[in-house]
Amino acid sequence: MQKTICLLPGDGIGPEILAQGVAVLKAVAQKFGHDFLFEEALIGGAAVDAVDDPLPAATVEACRRADAVFLAAVGGPRWDGLAPEKRPEKGLLRIRKELGLFANLRPALLLPELAGACLLRADVAARGLDLIVVRELTGDVYFGEPRGVEMRNGLRVGYNTMIYNEEEVRRIARVAFETARQRRKKVCSVEKSNVLECSRLWKEVVLEVHKDYADVELSHMYVDNAAMQLVRDPSQFDVILTGNIFGDILSDEASVITGSLGMLPSASMGASGPGLFEPIHGSAPDIAGQDKANPLATILSAAMLLRLGLHMGPEADAVENAVRQTLRDGYRTGDIMEPGKTLLGCAAMGQKVVERL
Ligand code: IPM
Ligand code: MG
Asked: Which atom of ligand 1 is found nearest the CA of 74?
């Protein structure tokens, strides 16, 4: 099958990890007889440097033309001083909005091969950790108006607006229930309805949508409690359904307790059009260009791209199995290194996965 994939390398370690993701996709194309066309475009700090805009119009067009978008990472201290509109992160927020990517799927999984890297007490880890955060991605305080910093009565005031309409809640709730149906059939909706009106509406709408999904068990949790339960006993969670800002925070928490932030992929999907696939970690400017980064989150994002973006299930399975086999064979990058294992750089790690495909 012929498919076009738009590549957005971005900043920091972005180009080197994406190169490994692409190497894996090329190996998949060869093995399964597909024809993948790659088109590269600018985003983030790299785009600011080149054309003074973190998301040039040409990039949006290239993404729209593609069957899937494969992004590495954006941002870095070099651009921290820029105005909000010029910051690399703005490029990422804008592409999510432009492509209507309202559903962000972030699986956090404790691989048996990496159990030693898990930050949890052994008896807690032994109960397992296999959850997915379904985060709303185009609403909430991230995009709500009004927003700004201004003078009021001689004082500087900063403000943002937490806002959701019922349709925004409904469509992400459906994604969560549908996702749960393919897993252990449990959804925990996370909000702060003891304090926030926005969360009260969220909970009400989630309860309404649940009527169509009686086979899925629904529970509700305040976000502070959810943050605590994630470390106390993550095995209780299957699908966590939540808004943009709570999902941002909880998905970092869920991923880092697995001990392998460098391992976790994500998918951002809209109602139609191409999805965007990216590792959940950042651009790690401190190790950029040193061939030290862990490419596995990017490679696993390629697997999500194959499964969810191109509907190629067996191809996705093959990539995930190759990653597991590489770990079983004892290969590690610095971030997940353990005594007795073989330390590899970014490119060599990608090569090991390709060999196992
Ligand atoms: C993420 C990141 C982004 C977000 C930043 C880079 C804008 O933290 O994808 O989780 O807050 O959504
Ligand atoms: Mg984040």
From this structure: 6
- The residue type found at 150 is E
Q: Which listed residue (142, 164, 213, 331) is catalytic?
A: 142
Query: Which helix or strand (DSSP H or E) is residue 212 part of?
Result: none
Q: Phi/psi of residue 153, each to 5°?
A: 50, 45
The ligand placed nearest to the CA atom of residue 93 is 1
User: Of the candidates 169, 187, 182, which has an alpha carbon nearest to the alpha carbon of residue 239?
Assistant: 187
Residues 71-125: tens digit of each pLDDT: 999 999 999 999 999 999 999 999 999 999 999 999 999 988 888 888 899 899 9
Domains in the chain (CATH in brackets) are: 1-116+265-357 (3.40.718.10), 119-257 (3.40.718.10)
- Active-site annotation holder among 3, 67, 140, 192: 192
Instruction: Quote the strand ranges of 204-316, DSSP E.
Output: 217-222, 239-242, 265-269, 275-279
Asked whether 44 and 109 are in contact (CB, 8 A), the reply is no
User: Ligand 2 centroid to 113 CA: how many Å?
Assistant: 25
Task: Tell me the pLDDT tens digit for each residue of 119-164.
Answer: 899 899 999 899 999 999 999 999 999 999 999 999 999 999 999 9
The residue whose two tokens read 């971030």 is: 335
> Is the pTM above the cut of 0.85?
yes
Nearest CA to ligand 1 atom 1: 248
Token reading at 262: 């460098």
